[in-house]
Every structure is written in structure tokens, then in C-alpha cells.
């Protein structure tokens, strides 16, 4: 009996030590509970292919590493819901959220907004059709196939749906013959181009990026309608992240200067000309819209 008791204590001790070693190898915590990761894990929305995302964000991460003296690694989740889950479980230290995923992360996990691009204060979505489609407005596409991106996407679902209802008096499921979800903006564009959908709601900035790098050709698609502007993407951090890291990160983003040639290349690669401080108040309208569409409180 004593041997069994001793063996149980040994197993518990080894398990605790192993967990402790694993945890401290990844993140150190101060007495106040603040976390200081040895490598800052950066999660981004999987709205394009992983190779395109790495090409887009690696120059920014290299810049942040130089400015803050921390190492950074890019984490590309399988979908929008996994990004939220990884943030909630502490497996991501810095996240690029869309407006909808941010208000969920704030509601569920107390995510703190850090910065946003200048373009994100007045973002738009576009509704695309094939270049030879006779439709001149959304109302011409009744009973046809509409493609959204991810169901958790701000610019690929939440705001296009909201503005369809508010500005066009269209409830997608009642108006279109079928509503599908591609999971990503580039996939939505390809679905429309290839005839798998008749109309698609897409992030305008990503469409422009796809045209610039040749993934889409001029004449493949055209815009049949664009939404009014709304606030969108935001870089956010967990509440428990070390305050010194938060300050260094915010300062590094805000110091990106479009007049500096190297900085201009980094900014152009992510569709920005500058960064601005971000706050909760900017996302209160989205918070209400997300609540109305029953997106809050779920992952």
C-alpha cells in the first residue's frame, strides 16, 4: 500500500514538473499574472491560402522582431472559429481579427484592441458577378446562387448580409435560390469566376490584391454593388499579455512611416498607408449587429 501511495505521488510530481517545464518554455508569468512569451505567436484570419498569407505578413513580422527584440512566428488556423479558439486557450499572443471575430474574442476572452490600419476605419465589401452576367444590380439576381466567405467573416458575411437587409430589403435565404459559404475571400471570387456561384460578397481590398498579383485577371469579374463603409480589421492581444510587450508592439505599428521606402513596402504589402490606435468604442456598432445576428457567445 505504501509503495502504491509512493508511486502515485511520484507520477503526480513528474506530471506537474513536465507541465511546468512545458509552460515556462513557452511563456513566463510575473507575480501579477502577466505573460511574457519567449516567441510571440501571431494568428491571422485564414482568408487566403497559407502561402499567400505568409508572403503577406512575413515582412511585417520581421519588422516587428527588429523593433521589439522578440521573435515572432505566424500561426495560420484552419478556419475563423479555430482562430478564436486558439486565442481563447492562450495559444496565440497577437491576433489579426476581423470586426466580427474581434467582438466575439472581446465578448468571450476579453481581447484588447491594439491598432488598426487606416483603411480599416472605413472598409467596404463588394458584390461580384461574372463579367458577362447581364445583372446590373443585386435585385437582378433573384433565385440564383449567392456565395459568402466564412460565416464569421465581417467583410465576407456579417456586413454584406447586414447591408443587404438594411439597404436592399433582401434577406438572402428568402431572395436567392441558394446561399453557400466558401470559407475564404479568394475562394468566393474563384467560385463566381468559375460559375459555381452567380454573385459573391468579398473583401474589396483582397479583390484588389488578387488583381495586382495576377490571381484574378481584369475582366474576369465586375462589381455589381458595394457596401457603405464600416470599421473592420484590428490587431488585438490577450488581456494577460505583458504590458511592456503591448506598448512595444503598439509603438512599432504606429512608427511605420509611408515616407520611408522600406516601411512603404511593408505597408503596401498589407494594404495600408499607416496604423492608428484602436479602441473598443469603434466596434460598438458591430457588436450590436453581431448580437442581432446571434454571433456573440459562440465559437
Q: Would you mind describing this structure in some detail?
A:
- The protein is an alpha/beta fold.
- The protein folds into two domains: 30-121 and 232-292, Periplasmic binding protein-like II (D-Maltodextrin-Binding Protein, domain 2), CATH 3.40.190; 124-226, Periplasmic binding protein-like II (D-Maltodextrin-Binding Protein, domain 2), CATH 3.40.190.10.
- Helices cover 44% and strands 20% of the residues.
- The strands form three sheets. A six-stranded mixed β-sheet has the order 4-3-5-12-6-13, with helices on both faces. Strands 9-8-10-7-11 form a five-stranded mixed β-sheet.
- Helix 2 links the parallel strand 3 and strand 4 (71-75).
- Helix 2 (50-68) crosses helix 9 (243-254), helix 3 (80-88) packs parallel to helix 4 and helix 4 (99-109) crosses helix 11 (284-292).
- The longest helix is centred in the first third of the chain and has 25 residues, at 2-26.
- It starts with a helix and ends in a 7-residue tail after the last helix.
- The model is unreliable at 1-27 (pLDDT under 50).
